[in-house]
Design goal:
Blueprint lengths: L2 H9 L40 H4 L2 H33 L3 H4 L14 H9 L2 H33 L4 H10 L9 H9 L13 H8 L2 H12 L3 H9 L4 H12 L1 H17 L2 H6 L8 H8 L5 H31 L6
Helix pairs in contact: 3-16, 5-16, 6-9, 6-10, 6-13, 6-15, 13-16
Length: about 325
């Protein structure tokens, strides 16, 4: 009996586990490897109020669409109804506006009330003043806030973080708290001693100093690759040339957002223009309508409010994509 027979018989003794069979030899004499099993990708947990299993049923889809349509229509009605009431109220007569319960649709449409509001309230003068205030505030905001954000982001001055922290701290202060100090500053400008009341400078200078805009611009400038600026420095470009030729062209989305927000903040502001522009010929559109509201019928007043709201609505619909793109741009570094 051969040794191989004895070894195989000893391996099969009771109580001793059998050895696994060796893998079959490949053609080149090497043992072939067993096939690898593919690992299954782990199932990601479903995050949401409604699971896909629920949406796969007819009952779940019906409930989902009912809730979705109800929420969308409800929120749309909440935001759009005041605008609808203002537009339709301008077309009603004074007696119809005072009617209880109020009617949701005017009995007769009279477009002549808008011309009456334009002539009686002198809306052309107020609109021209507001456009001048908004344009100047936009220009000074871009010049001051863009340069400040660029210096804090790329030039890294001494105590730059302290300065940025002080700017952000101003956002925690309610605007009504700083009305009196700001008014005294405008009335008697420090060092120079100028009185800026009843001048556009009373609107332009406070609007340009905005900590939120500086922070928004700085966050976007931080996402610009440092290598791009270093390459420009190697070519001999200075900080001003880099800002004008490289930083500003790639920062159009966020600059568009800052421009729109700065113009809209001046356009809808009421308390500050009321304090610093008491002269009737220098009033903004909101202050002018408010000062003459007691002398006008309700339908004429609503027509004036509709005319004053048209520029802001047009700007929103034209630049709504730029607003969303600019607010999300620069939030992630890539």
């Amino acid at each position: 009996m051969s040794s191989s027979t004895v070894r195989s018989s000893s391996d099969l003794r009771p109580g001793r586990p059998a050895r696994p069979a060796p893998p079959p030899a490949a053609r080149d004499g090497r043992p072939s490897r067993p096939p690898r099993r593919r690992r299954k990708a782990p199932e990601r947990p479903v995050r949401g109020l409604v699971s896909p299993q629920t949406l796969s049923t007819t009952h779940g889809r019906i409930i989902y669409w009912i809730i979705l349509v109800t929420v969308v229509v409800g929120f749309t009605a909440i935001f759009v109804f005041p605008l609808y009431w203002m537009v339709t109220g301008a077309m009603k007569s004074s007696d119809e506006l005072a009617q209880i319960p109020p009617s949701f649709f005017p009995t007769s449409i009279d477009w002549g009330v808008y011309k009456e509001a334009w002539d009686q309230l002198d809306l052309g003068l107020f609109l021209r003043n507001t456009i001048v205030y908004a344009a100047g505030a936009w220009l000074f905001t871009l010049v001051i806030d863009v340069t400040a954000a660029y210096a804090l982001s790329k030039l890294r001055p001494v105590l730059g973080k302290v300065v940025l922290g002080g700017m952000l701290a101003t956002l925690m202060i309610p605007p009504t708290v700083i009305l009196l100090p700001a008014y005294l500053t405008v009335k008697d400008l420090p060092i120079l001693g100028w009185n800026l009341l009843n001048t556009p400078w009373a609107i332009w200078l406070p609007a340009a100093a905005n900590g939120f805009f500086i922070f928004l611009l700085k966050r976007f400038f931080d996402s610009i690759p440092r290598e791009l600026l270093e390459a420009a420095e190697i070519d001999g470009a200075g900080p001003v040339r880099i800002l004008w030729s490289i930083v500003l062209p790639v920062s159009r989305p966020i600059i568009g957002v800052v421009s729109i927000l700065s113009v809209m903040s001046v356009w809808k502001d009421f308390v500050w223009p009321l304090l610093v522009l008491p002269d009737g010929d220098k009033m903004s559109i909101s202050v002018g309508i408010s000062s003459l509201s007691a002398q006008m019928p309700q339908n004429v007043l609503m027509a004036a409010l509709v005319i004053a709201s048209i520029p802001a609505i047009v700007v929103f619909f034209v630049f709504q994509r730029s607003i969303m793109a600019g607010l999300t741009a620069g939030s992630l570094k890539g």
